[in-house]
Amino acid sequence: MTTTARYIHAFGPAALTRFYDTGVRLLIREEAFRSRLLEHMHLAPGQRVLDVGCGTGTLAVLARQRHPGVEVHAADGDDEVLAIARDKAARAGAGVRFERAMAWALPYPDGTFDRVVSSLVFHHLAPDDKRRAALEIFRVLRPGGALLLADFGPPRGAAGRAVAWALSRFAHLRENLADLLPALLTGAGYSDVAEIDRMRTALMPIAMIRGRKPLAAP
Ligand SMILES: C[S@@+](CC[C@H](N)C(=O)[O-])C[C@H]1O[C@@H](n2cnc3c(N)ncnc32)[C@H](O)[C@@H]1O
To answer: Which of 30, 54, 121, 129 to mutate to test the pocket of ligand 1 (most atoms within 8 A of CB)?
Structure first.
């Protein structure tokens, strides 16, 4: 499956990818963010987890370090960012299985994963591609498994609304700013969809949205 949308690299233009880790450390409270994501994933030994749009692999490596009994897979559409991620995992001695893949064409059989996480990726996807990615993640989740989606949500307050209005001309951000990601997951078949956490950052707030694949999937 293809798209006509432009590929948006980790930090926008490909030339900035090598500055991604530094930028994230400066712009969001990264340690708190990653730790909260991992807590919300409720990982347990024997589970298989996938990080979609894993970027430089920080979360996947941390997941493997904190939960050595969990099989960690990570996919991203960009070879350059994957090279950084593979190097990071090797230096940490963390066995993460990386694949190059677009979020809407994941190279795993149906029902492979107990958990899927995708952080700060959906605002890189055009509206139709967000929907395709949500459906593809649903496919690779096992019935009863859960997706944790973390991405920019609508800023609150008058100043925040002004920022949202200014940014809403960017089509990729429109659903984030209009708080439509939960509805998008529900539309893709997920149940129990809820925003379970929200974190303020120097940019916009990050909403953490959970959705489950029902035991009897439609
Ligand atoms: C802002 S970075 C987030 C990286 C990481 N998840 C994190 O939390 O730091 C967005 C990532 O999404 C990846 N990406 C963008 N479009 C994608 C697509 N269509 N399929 C797979 N990955 C994609 C980019 O290559 C980039 O690594």
So the answer is: 121
Burial class (CB in 10 A: 0-12, 13-18, 19+), 5: middle
Residue 20: predicted pLDDT: 95
Pocket of ligand 1 contains residue 117 by CB under 6 Å:
no
pLDDT of the residue at 90: 98
SS3 assignment, position 167: helix
Q: What's domain 27-212's architecture? A: 3-Layer(aba) Sandwich (3.40)
Ligand 1, atom 20: nearest CA belongs to which residue? 102
Task: Please indicate, yes or no, whether the overall pTM of this predicted structure exceeds 0.90.
Answer: yes
Task: Flag residues of the chain having pLDDT under 70.
Answer: 1-4, 217-218
Phi, psi of 114 (to 5 degrees): -80, -35
3-state secondary structure 9-39: ECCECHHHHHHHHHHHHHHCCHHHHHHHHHH
77 close to ligand 1 (CB < 6 Angstrom): yes
Give the tokens for residue 116: 């899927």
State how far the Cα of 32 lies from the Cα of 22, in Å rounded to an integer.
16
Closest atom of ligand 1 relative to the 129 alpha carbon? 19
- What is the reported pLDDT for 1? 47
**N residues, the chain:** 218
